[in-house]
Design a protein that fits this description.
- The strands form 4 sheets. The protein has a 6-stranded mixed sheet with strand order 2-1-3-8-7-6, with helices on both faces. Strands 14-13-15-16-17 form a 5-stranded mixed sheet. It has a 4-stranded antiparallel sheet with strand order 10-11-9-12, sandwiched between helices.
- Helix content is 39%, strand content 26%.
- The protein folds into 3 domains: 170 residues, MoaB/Mog-like domain (Molybdenum Cofactor Biosythetic Enzyme, Chain A); 77 residues, Alpha-Beta Plaits (2-Layer Sandwich); 154 residues, Alpha-Beta Complex (Maf protein).
- The two termini are 46 Å apart.
- The protein is built from 13 helices and 17 strands.
- It has 411 residues and is of the alpha/beta class.
Length: 411
């Protein structure tokens, strides 16, 4: 059984909002053994929407639409579905009565355009929407199914995970599709692929690499009659990948690198402090985004100016003299890490200093030059990086590199 998603909204095409609803649905379908083979995004235009739906129906058993179910003139999903299925819209008296009830109870002003939400194709049944006014729709005609879902996340998720999931579970007969995500860091995508290239031709399970900022993720996916059988297909593939990549694999599925680092610190009974320059607190933000970080994360200093590096952290002023190596240097990074460790009485200190850009670089130290250091009980470990990215990209990569270096020091 194959499914396709058609997301509706000009704001999606313009990049004004991210299509997180389609992502959520894309994660749900494999759990039910439904192959998600295609995805389209179309603007608020009836002809283009109907054409997109006809194309989807020509190659898929189930088509989902997301968005375009509201009361305004540019909410065209109902009309598009009717046109694609060769159906007509009718007013549903029960839906109309429910709309009047909602507006009366919430003391909203009524306008006649709200009645658009009471219209539906004759081949459809409505899906209740307790969190909004627009009902969803399940349309069945000529062996095809179109499921229309509202766009607002607070309405979409309960509907998708509730009545739509139940409906799909009754339809699904092709077993389940299970995925497991292996996360790696400190190793490039080319090296990862070279180490597992013979595994990439496997058909069940399949394995596919995805490059992320400072990481490479490997998604292993299997198809089987039951989840247990699918998991049993994945297990040996995971074991083989781990054997080949070793310590580069740091976690599974949703676990983030900062979570792993915090677990390592707890296991050692250690604490952490950070000193940041070009990242402006980004490393501390990553660490404190994890609930419970306070038991090992002592604090940090954003030492953006040299005066703060010298006056607050205690970095040697000679580094900033005309003949010195400057703030963006290995010497400065190492001193920042040592000083913040001492100042907070932490077991480990981490520092980042660099040039994020877009200006401030030189021939000797171009934009993207970054130094990271970790002060540990056994000494200071440091690395020099040259990132080619936007200002925000340099900052993100710097934080990621600091976490990778800290993880290695904790091993």
């Amino acid at each position: 059984m194959k499914a396709e998603i058609v997301s509706v909204g000009t704001e999606l095409l313009l990049g004004q909002i991210a299509d997180t609803d389609a992502q959520h649905l894309g994660q749900l379908l494999p759990q039910l053994g439904i192959a998600h083979t295609n995805r389209q995004t179309v603007g608020d235009n009836l002809q283009r929407l109907a054409d997109a739906l006809r194309l989807a129906l020509s190659r898929s058993d189930i088509v989902f639409t997301i968005g375009g179910l509201g009361p305004t003139q540019d909410d065209l999903t109902r009309e598009g579905i009717a046109a694609a299925l060769g159906d007509v819209l009718v007013k549903d008296d029960d839906l109309e009565a429910n709309l009047h009830r909602i507006f009366r109870e919430r003391r909203f002003a009524w306008v006649e355009s709200q009645l658009r939400q009471a219209m539906r194709p004759t081949c459809s049944v409505p899906i209740a929407n307790p969190n909004g006014t627009a009902p969803g729709l399940i349309c069945e005609k000529d062996g095809k199914v179109v499921i229309a879902l509202p766009g607002p996340r607070g309405e979409f998720v309960p509907m998708a995970d509730g009545p739509v999931r139940d409906y799909l579970a009754r339809l699904a007969t092709g077993g389940v599709i299970v995925s497991r995500l292996l996360r790696t860091c400190g190793i490039g995508e080319g090296i990862v692929e070279d180490k597992i290239k013979d595994l990439l031709s496997s058909e069940n399970p399949t394995i596919a690499p995805y490059a992320k900022i400072g990481e490479v993720h490997l998604r292993i996916t299997s198809h089987a009659p039951s989840r247990e059988e699918a998991e049993s297909l994945i297990d040996p593939m995971e074991a083989e990948v781990r054997a080949r990549l070793g310590a580069a694999v740091y976690g599974l599925d949703d676990v983030a690198l900062e979570e792993v680092v915090l677990r390592q610190l707890r296991a050692l009974g250690s604490t952490l402090a950070v000193a940041e320059s070009c990242t402006g607190g980004g490393l501390g933000a990553r660490i404190t985004s994890v609930a419970g970080a306070s038991d090992v994360f002592v604090g940090g200093i954003v030492s953006y100016a040299n005066e703060v590096k010298e006056g607050i952290l205690g970095v040697d002023s000679a580094l900033f003299a005309e003949s010195g190596p400057g703030a963006v240097s290995d010497e400065c990074a190492r001193q920042m890490a040592e000083r913040v460790r001492d100042k907070f009485g932490a077991t480990f200190g981490v520092s980042i200093t660099g040039i994020a850009g877009p200006s401030g670089g030189s021939e000797q130290k171009p934009v993207g030059t970054v130094y990271v250091a970790v002060a540990a009980p056994d000494g200071v470990h440091s690395e020099h990086y040259r990132f080619r990215a936007s200002r925000e990209g340099v900052r993100e990569r710097s934080v990621q590199s600091a976490l990778v270096l800290l993880r290695a020091a904790l091993a």
